Amino acid sequence: MAFVGRLGGDSGIQALQRNLLEISRIGERLSSGRRINRAADDPAGLAISESLRAQLAGVEQAIGNTQRASSVVRVAEEGIAEVSQLLVRAKELALSSADGSLLDTEVDANQQELDGILRSIDRIAGTTDFAGERLLDGTQDFLRRNVDAAFRRIEVNRAEIAPGGTTFEVDVSAASTQAQAGGTIAAVQAGAATFQVTGSLGTEAVTVADGATREETAEAINAVRESTGVQADATTGVVSSTGYGSASFVNLRNESGTLSGVTEGRTAGTDIVATVSGEAVSSRGNRIFFQTGALEGEALLADGTGAGTYRFTIAGGGTSVQTGEGTNPNERIRFGIHGVRTSDLGLAEAPGGLSQLSRGGAYDLRNDAGGASRIIDAAIADVARSRGGLGALERQAFDSNVNTLSIARENLAAAESSIADTDFARSIAEFIAARIRSQAQFSVLAQRNALAGNALNLLG
C-alpha cells in the first residue's frame, strides 16, 4: 500500500482536493450570484460592500419618505382645489346680490346657497385626510407664538426651527405708502368740473358743481371709492389710494373744467422695505415674502406699520420629512399645510374672514354684499397662495429630491455590484477550466492506481 501511495502521489491528491474546492466555490458564486458570500472570500471587499448596501438602503428609504410626502401634498392640493371652485361660485353669488335690482327673495336664495358653500368648505377642511391624518383643518400648520400686533397674517410653508422653537425678526426699514395726488382739494371749487378718477380698482367720472366745498368734493370722490380704489380726506383735501404699495395708484384727468387744487396725472405708492433675520426679502405693499434658508412663506403687516423690528416665533407643528440617506438635519424638510376653514380664509380683509358671510353675519349678502365680495376675493387669494406653495414644494423639493436620489441609487447599486456580484462570464470560464482539470486529475490518478496494481501482480 505504501507503493501505491507513492505512485498516486500526495501532491496529486492535494491538487485534486484544491481543484474540487475551487469548483465548489465557483459553483457557490454562480448559484448565489454573489462573488463575496463570506468574509474569507474578500475581507476588504466585504467591508466596502456592506457599507454601500447600508447607504443604498438609506437612499431607498429616503425615496420612499419623499414619495409619501409628495402624496400627502397632492391629496391636500386636491382638497384645496375643490375649495377654490366653491369660492368662485361664492363670488358669483356676492356679485349677483350686489345688483340693486334683485328682489329680497332672490338675495335670500343666494344667501341660502352661500351658506351651503360655507358648510361645504368646512366639511372639506375637516374630512380631507391621508392615512387618518387631517390635512386641511389647520393641524398640519406651523404653531405661531408671541406674534407682534403689527402682523395681520403669517403664513409659513417651510421652516427650519430649533427643538424649542425659533424666533424670527422682521426689520422694517421703510414703511409702505399710499399713492397721493399732487396738491390738495381747494376749499371752494372755482368752477364746475367733470374729471376721471382712476385707481387700482377701476375708473369713474366725477362731477362737482361751481362753488362746491372741499367736503362736498371729497364726498363725490368717496362715493365711487369702492369701484376706483381712490379716496379723499374731507379735512385735509388729500386725494390718495385706498391701498398701499406700488400696485396702488391715483390717476386724475380733467374732462371739462378743472378740479381746483389738485394736480392732474398719475402717482403710485411704495412697497415696504424689510429684512427677515438679517436676510433680504421681497415685498409688495404691506406683504413680505420669505424665501430664506430657514423660512419660506409670507407675512402681511397692518396698514401704516412704520419702521421697526417685529417678531414672531415658530414653536413647532408642521410635518417633517427625512429626504436624505441619513439623519442629518440638513436633509430634513419641515413643511406646513394651511387650514382652509371659513374662519381661516379672508382674514386679510376682515376679522373672522369667510365665517362672517353666513346668514346673520356682518357681511352676509343682505347686510354688505360688496364687503362679502372683497372677503371672498381675499379668500381666493389665500387658497391660491396655499396651492402655489404646495405645488412649489412638490416640484422643487420633492420631485427634484426623488430624481437626485434615484441617480444616487443607480450609482450605488452599480458600485456595490461591481464589488460583490459574480462576474458570470469569468466564473463560468473558470468553472469549465476547473472541471477539465479535475477530470484530467481523476484520469491520471486512475492510471497510476492501475499501474500500481499491475506491479503488485508481477511481484506476487
Structure description:
It is built from eight helices and 20 strands. With 460 residues, it is of the alpha+beta class. It has a domain at 178-268. The strands form six sheets. A five-stranded antiparallel sheet has the order 3-18-5-13-14, with no helix packed on it. Strands 4-17-16-15 form a four-stranded antiparallel sheet, covered by helices on one side. Strand 7 (193-199) and strand 8 form a beta hairpin. The longest helix is centred in the last third of the chain and has 56 residues, at 365-420. The radius of gyration is 40 Å and the shape is elongated.
What structural keywords apply?
460 residues, alpha+beta, five-stranded antiparallel beta sheet, four-stranded antiparallel beta sheet, 8 helices, disordered N terminus
Q: What is this structure's SSE topology?
A:
Layout lengths: L1 H7 L1 H23 L10 H55 L6 H24 L1 E2 L2 E2 L7 E4 L5 E9 L6 E9 L3 E3 L12 E7 L2 E7 L5 H9 L2 H4 L1 E3 L6 E6 L4 E8 L8 E4 L4 E4 L2 E2 L1 E3 L2 E5 L3 E7 L6 E10 L1 E4 L9 E4 L29 H56 L3 H36 L1
Antiparallel strand pairs: 1-2, 3-18, 4-17, 5-13, 5-18, 6-10, 7-8, 7-11, 9-10, 11-12, 13-14, 15-16, 16-17, 19-20
Helix pairs in contact: 1-8, 2-8, 3-4, 3-7
